[in-house]
Each structure stands twice: as structure tokens, then as C-alpha cells.
TrEMBL record:
Entry-linked PANTHER family: ABC TRANSPORTER ATP-BINDING PROTEIN, CONSERVED COMPONENT OF ABC TRANSPORTER FOR NATURAL AMINO ACIDS-RELATED
Gene3D superfamilies membership: P-loop containing nucleotide triphosphate hydrolases
Organism of this sequence: Collimonas pratensis
Domain ABC transporter: 10-251
Protein name, per record: ABC transporter family protein
Keyword Ubl conjugation: no
Keywords annotated in UniProt: ATP-binding, Cell membrane, Membrane, Nucleotide-binding, Transport
CDD domains linked: ABC_Mj1267_LivG_branched (cd03219)
Pfam annotation, one family: BCA_ABC_TP_C
Keyword ATP-binding: yes
């Protein structure tokens, strides 16, 4: 089918973001197709988090276009963008530590439906909310922690809860910011498996430094250097790309 009938779910065209004279995002261009899994990699300070902030509406672009299913979203609020089916997780865990796992998920499910601070109110469709929480607990392997205070969970389990919170609203485009940061090898492998499960049938854009996670999870890799995407291709092609080796993987590529 033609690309005109199916525009990319997300498209960045000549995107710019500057703070004063500092050009942080400098003409970034990227297309993400429906159902695709894409990792955004790049050296520290390349602008990856800034790009996520732009896409999720935390900050507004200085120039260029940002299209979600063909619709300009540059300058929309995070809430408006999330209503269009985009959900984002954060590098720093953003759970409520003094609420149970179930209540964290409840908050996320309700927020996704536009409700806030409604624990004590009777809500229409409460049964459906509880069903959704049960589904999320299962999907994220959190059933045995359902009643545990989120602050008492291990770090890796907190990150699993974070993923549950991110997917709670049923978004079709997921942005995950370093979901395995700070994990050991086994935890990262389990998180990779969880991400694979919950992103099945969805579109995934993730920032990730762990190359085992990246190479095992995604269809394509986009490489951001100095606020520009210098290459976007399959993991094998990126691994073999000389410009990428020089700019980013250089140190690893030179090892025997
Ligand atoms: N609000 C801001 N004002 C000025 N400069 C900023 C602002 N936010 C980010 N920057 C700068 O933009 C650059 C890119 O930062 P960003 O956090 O997007 O990079 P990154 O690729 O995510 O890095 P890392 O891998 O270390 O997380 C950095 O030099 C940072 O100092």
C-alpha cells in the first residue's frame, strides 16, 4: 500500500530546538512507521532527551515540523499529545513511592481517561478500570507486588511498574527513555523481554545505551549526533556504518 495512504505514525522534518545561541536539535529528520521498533542512540549530550521532550510536548520546537499521523503536534501540550495516543516514560522513575503498585496503576489508568484524584469518588466504569489494572499487573509481572508500596520495590521492579504506568492508557506509540539504565545484565534482559511483550503490535521509540538491548529489540536504529540524525538503518547496517563507528561506536568498533 502506498505511503500516502499510510503516513508515518511519527515524522520529524528539519526539526530545530535552540536555547539562546545553543543549537541543541539541528535539523533532525526521522520517520517512524506504524508498528516499527526504533532505538535512538547517540553520544552523551547529542540531544536525545531533548528530542523526546519535543516529541512528547514538554518543550516546543524552535523550527521545523513534528507530525503525529500526519498531524502537526509541535507546540501542543503533553496532555494533548497523549490524548492522540503517545505515551512516554522517563529516565528518572516517576512513580508515587507511598502508593501501592495497584494504586500507582489506578492513578495512571484514571489519568489516561481524564480523571484525577478520584480515589474516593464513585466512577463510571470502575469495573473496567479494575480489569485494566489486573491486565497491567499480569503483563508487567507485578501480580505478587500488587499491594506493595512502590517505594519498597527493588529498582528493577520499579522500572517495570514505570512501564506499566506508561502503557496504562493503551497508547499505540510508546517512547521509553533508557528503560534499562542502572540495571544489571539479568535485570536488563528481563526488562527487554517485558518491553518486547508490552510493545507487541505497537510502535516503539526508545533511547537506550545498552547495545545488547538495542540490537535484540529493534528493527532500526537512528543515530543522533550534535542534534542531527546522521544515520537510520537496520542494526546490522548501523554496526557496519563507518560514520556511525567514527561518531559514536568508535571506541567499541576499534576493539579487536
Ligand atoms: N533547558 C536547556 N537549556 C540549555 N541547554 C540545554 C537545556 N536542556 C538541554 N540542554 C543541553 O542540550 C544538550 C543535549 O542534552 P540532552 O539531555 O538532550 O542530551 P542526551 O543526548 O539526552 O544526553 P545523555 O545521553 O547524557 O542523556 C546538552 O548539551 C544540554 O546541556
Amino acid at each position: 500500500m502506498s505511503d500516502q495512504l499510510h503516513p508515518p505514525i511519527l515524522e520529524l522534518r528539519n526539526l530545530h530546538k535552540q536555547y539562546g545561541a545553543a543549537r541543541i536539535i539541528n535539523g533532525a529528520a526521522l520517520q517512524l512507521r506504524e508498528g516499527e521498533k526504533l532505538a535512538l542512540i547517540g553520544p552523551n549530550g547529542a540531544g536525545k532527551s531533548t528530542l523526546f521532550n519535543l516529541i512528547s510536548g514538554a518543550i516546543a520546537p524552535s523550527g521545523g515540523e513534528l507530525l503525529l499521523r500526519g498531524r502537526e503536534i509541535g507546540g501542543m501540550t503533553p496532555f494533548q499529545i497523549s490524548r492522540l495516543g503517545l505515551a512516554r516514560s522517563f529516565q528518572i522513575t516517576s512513580i508515587f513511592p507511598r502508593l501501592s503498585v495497584t494504586d500507582n496503576l489506578r492513578t495512571a489508568v484514571l489519568a489516561a481517561h481524564g480523571y484525577r484524584y478520584t480515589f474516593w469518588r464513585r466512577l463510571p466504569g470502575l469495573g473496567k478500570v479494575n480489569d485494566r489494572i489486573e491486565e497491567l499487573l499480569q503483563q508487567c509481572g507485578l501480580q505478587k507486588h500488587a499491594a506493595t508500596l512502590a517505594g519498597d520495590l527493588s529498582y528493577a521492579t520499579q522500572r517495570a511498574l514505570e512501564i506499566g504506568i506508561t502503557i496504562a492508557g493503551g497508547a499505540s506509540l510508546l517512547l521509553l527513555d533508557e528503560p534499562t539504565a542502572g540495571m544489571n545484565r539479568d535485570e536488563a534482559a528481563a526488562a527487554t523481554e517485558l518491553i518486547r511483550r508490552v510493545s507487541s503490535g505497537k510502535t516503539l521509540l526508545l533511547i537506550e545505551h545498552d547495545m545488547d538491548v538495542v540490537f535484540g529489540l529493534v528493527d532500526r536504529i537512528a543515530v543522533l549526533v550534535d542534534g542531527r540524525i546522521i544515520a537510520c538503518d537496520t542494526p546490522a547496517a548501523i554496526r557496519a556504518n563507518r560514520a556511525v563507528q567514527e561518531a559514536y561506536l568508535g571506541m567499541e568498533a576499534q576493539q579487536p
